[in-house]
């Protein structure tokens, strides 16, 4: 039975499942327990434990591990204190030793072609912080409310907190109006809601608020803060950003039309490259979204002569792009691997290369479909006149 169990473990630790096991179990142990003394910065006894190749190569005492043979692996003997006692000081917990043993027994799977792992807090955060864990289905507590409310109800009950009494209808209507539109409720909508005593009255009232143009105007303001919307470049001379208002109006329309978030993201990141841009009233809405790249501070000196000005512009674009869509301060990786979020410098400069190699150009927003029929006819007439003039000129030669 023990042989069958070991075979099951070996089977589990191969392929994608083996890589996941390594990332979730093995890499945190190596990074936090071993690589402080046997990593990129320090190599006691000429031994590195931050890549599969370096572990197989070993140090002054030979290979640190033998794939498939934990009992013959120096690494396993060291953490078990059967000879050299590592790490120095307190012995590893039995659970962590077992993880390393099973990993060696299964062949020492190492993802990404043996790429070295970052050590210390950076790697520990990546492996343990809730924000970087795979999304997993969770069954909500029992109840008749919506799933999110059931989680809230369970926590509230555990804390001994009671639900507040329902608000009076007029108060509720006013609160909803301020949340959705930022304004007091319109007299007509308020009166209709107060007189609507049927099931779903509140839902109908909220839908009416969402249908108001004021909804987009209110919530676009929040997004404008996220992407540092401005109508001038700041700096010393504060030049005007021509057409900035077009991006503002794009946001208002996007919110009022309830544009799906995935489409909203695509339009911002690469709206000028979409094979099928979103067209509204003959206007290319997708390309309009990319205007947010131009909202940052811009120095007035020659960017080719003073290189730092150009790099600061791109850094600001990276900072805004990643904060808006990832919720992470990626610009810290401009100088070093990020110390708070799992973002290496190489990722920063990969993104830098994309943005720095792109140039700002003027784009026509109106599509061909929006050109009046009269203009198309006029162009045809102009071509005919030009052709006649050219033909007449050739006859005189």
Word description of this protein:
- A two-stranded antiparallel sheet has the order 1-2.
- The protein is mainly α.
- It has helices at 2-12, 15-34, 52-57, 74-79, 94-105, 111-114, 121-128, 147-158, 169-181, 187-195, 201-210, 213-226, 244-256, 261-270, 285-289, 307-326, 345-356, 373-395, and strands at residues 279-280, 283-284.
- It contains 18 helices and two strands.
- α2 packs antiparallel against α7 (121-128) and α9 (169-181) runs parallel beside α11.
- The protein is flat and about 95 Å long.
Name the features.
disordered N terminus, mainly alpha, flat, 18 helices
Produce the secondary structure layout.
Layout: H1 2-12, H2 15-34, H3 52-57, H4 74-79, H5 94-105, H6 111-114, H7 121-128, H8 147-158, H9 169-181, H10 187-195, H11 201-210, H12 213-226, H13 244-256, H14 261-270, E1 279-280, E2 283-284, H15 285-289, H16 307-326, H17 345-356, H18 373-395
Antiparallel strand pairs: 1-2
Helix pairs in contact: 2-5, 2-7, 9-11, 10-11, 12-13, 16-17
Gap between N and C termini: 101 Å
In DSSP terms (H or I, runs of 4 or more residues), the helix count works out at 18
Q: Main β-sheet: number of strands, strand sense, barrel status? A: 2 strands, antiparallel
Structural class: mainly alpha
Order of helices and strands: HHHHHHHHHHHHHHEEHHHH
Strand proportion, as a percent range, falls in: under 5%
Oligomer: single chain
How would you state the average pLDDT, rounded? 85
What is the count of β-strands? 2
Radius of gyration: 31 Å
Q: Low-confidence segments, ≥5 residues, pLDDT <50?
A: 1-13
Output the strand order for the largest sheet: 1-2
The helix content is 40-55%
User: Given the C-alpha coordinates, what overall shape results?
Assistant: flat
């Amino acid at each position: 039975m023990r042989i069958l169990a070991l075979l099951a473990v070996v089977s589990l630790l191969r392929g994608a499942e083996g890589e996941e096991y390594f990332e979730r179990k093995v890499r945190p142990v190596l990074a936090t327990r071993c690589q402080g003394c046997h990593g990129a910065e320090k190599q006691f006894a000429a031994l590195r434990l931050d890549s599969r190749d370096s572990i197989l190569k070993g140090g002054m005492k030979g290979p640190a591990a033998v794939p498939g043979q934990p009992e013959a692996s120096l690494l396993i003997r060291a953490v078990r204190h059967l000879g050299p006692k590592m790490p120095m000081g307190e012995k590893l917990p039995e659970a962590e030793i077992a993880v390393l043993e099973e990993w060696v027994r299964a062949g020492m799977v190492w993802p990404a072609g043996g790429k070295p792992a970052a050590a210390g807090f950076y790697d520990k955060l990546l492996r343990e912080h809730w924000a970087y864990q795979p999304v997993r289905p969770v069954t909500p507590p029992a109840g008749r409310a919506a799933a999110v409310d059931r989680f809230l109800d369970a926590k509230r009950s555990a804390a001994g907190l009671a639900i507040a009494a329902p608000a009076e209808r007029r108060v509720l209507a006013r609160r909803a109006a301020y949340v959705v539109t930022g304004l007091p409720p319109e007299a007509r909508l308020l009166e209709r809601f107060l007189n609507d005593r049927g099931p779903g009255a509140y839902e109908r009232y909220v839908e009416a608020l969402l249908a108001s143009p004021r909804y987009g105007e209110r919530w676009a303001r929040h997004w404008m803060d996220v992407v540092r919307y401005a109508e001038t470049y700041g700096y010393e001379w504060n030049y005007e950003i021509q057409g900035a208002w077009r991006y503002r109006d794009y946001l208002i329309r996007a919110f009022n039309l309830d544009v799906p978030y995935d489409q909203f993201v695509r339009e911002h990141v690469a709206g000028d490259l979409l094979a099928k841009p979103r067209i509204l009233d003959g206007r290319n809405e997708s390309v309009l979204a990319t205007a947010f790249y131009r909202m940052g501070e811009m120095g007035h000196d020659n960017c080719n002569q003073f290189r730092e000005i150009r790099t600061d512009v791109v850094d600001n674009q990276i900072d805004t792009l990643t904060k808006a869509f990832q919720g992470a301060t990626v610009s810290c990786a401009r100088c070093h691997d990020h110390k708070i979020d799992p973002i290496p410098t190489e990722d920063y400069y990969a993104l830098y290369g994309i943005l720095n190699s792109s140039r700002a150009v003027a784009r026509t927003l109106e599509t061909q479909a929006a050109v009046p029929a009269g203009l198309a006819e006029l162009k045809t007439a102009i071509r005919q006149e030009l052709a006649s003039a050219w033909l007449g000129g050739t006859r005189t030669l």
